[in-house]
Amino acid sequence: MKPANISLKTLSILGVAIAIALGPIALPEYQVSLANNIGIFALVTLGLILLTGVAGMTSFGQAAFVGVSAYTTAYLATSDQLPNWLGWAAGSPWAALAIGLVLTLAVATLLGGLTLKLSGHYLPLGTIAWGLSLYFLFGTLEFLGGHTGISGIPPLQLFGQTLDQGYELYYLIWVLVLAAVIVTLNLLDSREGRAIRAMRGGQLMAESMGVNTYRSKLLAFLVAATFASVAGWLYAYTQRFVAPAPFGLQAGIDYMFMALIGGVGQVWGALIGAATVTFLKQWLQDLLPHILGKNGNYESIVFGLLIVWLMQKAPGGIWSWLSPKLPDWKIKQTASPIETNEKLPRRPQPQAGEIILDVKKVTRRFGGLVANNDLSLSVKAGEILAVIGPNGAGKSTLFNQLSCVDTPTSGEIHFRGIQVNGQTARQIAGLGLSRTFQHVKLLPTMTVLENVAIGAHLRGECGFLSSALRLDRKDEAKLLQEARYQLERVGLGNYLHVEAGSLALGQQRILEIARALCADPCLLLLDEPAAGLRHLEKQALADLLRRLRTEGMAVLLVEHDMDFVMGLVDRVFVMEFGQRIAEGLPEEIQKNPAVLEAYLGGAE
Length: 604
Fold this sequence. Notes:
Layout: H1 8-26, H2 29-54, H3 62-78, H4 93-115, H5 122-140, E1 150-151, E2 156-158, E3 161-163, H6 166-188, H7 191-201, H8 203-208, H9 213-239, E4 241-242, H10 249-262, H11 269-292, H12 298-313, H13 317-322, E5 355-366, E6 369-380, E7 384-388, H14 395-402, E8 410-415, E9 418-419, H15 425-431, E10 433-435, H16 448-453, H17 464-468, H18 473-489, H19 505-517, E11 523-527, H20 535-550, E12 554-558, H21 562-566, E13 571-576, E14 579-584, H22 586-589, H23 593-598
Parallel strand pairs: 7-12, 7-13, 10-11, 11-12
Antiparallel strand pairs: 1-4, 2-3, 5-6, 5-8, 8-9, 13-14
Helix pairs in contact: 1-6, 2-6, 2-9, 2-10, 2-11, 3-4, 3-5, 3-9, 4-9, 6-9, 7-9, 10-11, 11-12, 18-19
């Protein structure tokens, strides 16, 4: 696909920038004030889009981070009894912004360190717990005004200008919102962004590709906290009054509604969701008293019903419903550049015949069940070894131990002379082992090219700041070029910009092999690579594995297709009930009585 000169991303940013510039001209003063609130809400919601929609971590505590920054700003702006060491910050908006950011990130790092190790429903419950704690803390501390709050915040002064009018704050708020959108878009289109996006599709896959999943989760958490902190700073100077109520659990739920309604997986959904919820609540507050003839909380009841209806009609949010209906200006989303003369460095390849993997007397027990019993095997450079056996033989358990997903109860596993028992999948990936999965693990809404580029994660160098500021293009070009090379190598070169989820199952398995090769391994572990492949695809896969063997790569595969195995591999290792029953050349295994007995009735 040849990209157009103007990307959809650039067009979207330009369109929003023009709309922002025209806002105060086209809107009355009251609507400008409402737009200021929408901008602040959108900034907080943008963090939730990254944290929940992209990284898959539900949080109801964003409002508490807004409160940390807002209270810091209000306290520094109004207190006349600051400690001597903090006197320099009195009345300075820049100092309030900096200190608010530092304090918010410190709190977020502490809470993230505790919360992000939780999974399932415990994670959102954890965010509710500390969100409530911070909310009650705001109302308890006397120097923060208790439940009365802090009033009398002076207007914001920047560069000698006093920003005390709605339209003056408008431009500051929306410039910061647009900057946050650009940073988020840049981040998602990068090595760091792919790692964050992988959190939603499968952490085991990401760890096996060398991604530090805890670091990626914490990074998304801290970016979301940063956006909330900036929003809190803006809130304090916009409202000129800070009290606990806007930073409680209800506010956290409202922010989540904004993300869901706008499109929880879409960056622009933050703006749409914030505007929709704000206008809808305002409209209901104005309309319902006229219809019902009395005041009450009817707007909350009707709002809740409308939310349920909207989620049924557009479960992906307004943006997912709206985007297909927008005019087609034939301007396509461009992929990151993949043309460069530089190539990624490759690891030194082992000498022919070198023992890459050496397994000695490995046993794995699960309570009273012995899944693997006293297993020993080795794989040499330039060799293909097949591990076969009927259902329940313990092949998957062995495979997980070799890739450090699981740890043996006893025995030793050596990879290139290093004992790797107890190491993580990420650590052994860094040593040169790469794998595929029995049940395909990919990110279906990401392109084929991006999925494969995850495999090269450890070969990249640029971090968060380089990605956010778009300074990573040279490094990114090398990563994507490597991904394209591996895709062309396995026969998927025509599918670079296709969503991975639209591929057939056999193609998805081939994609996994390309992703594994992108890590530049010296040992490739393949879990049922021929499953779902047609005859010609199996032949192409066999040819590829033979080429890898001639290049000196070691391959260990678990497979059930005996015709595929016997015509390809150098040696076969046969298991039954967790034990080795035979090992040798393919022609020897086919005649082995113990193997024939194990497979009596058909191989699985």
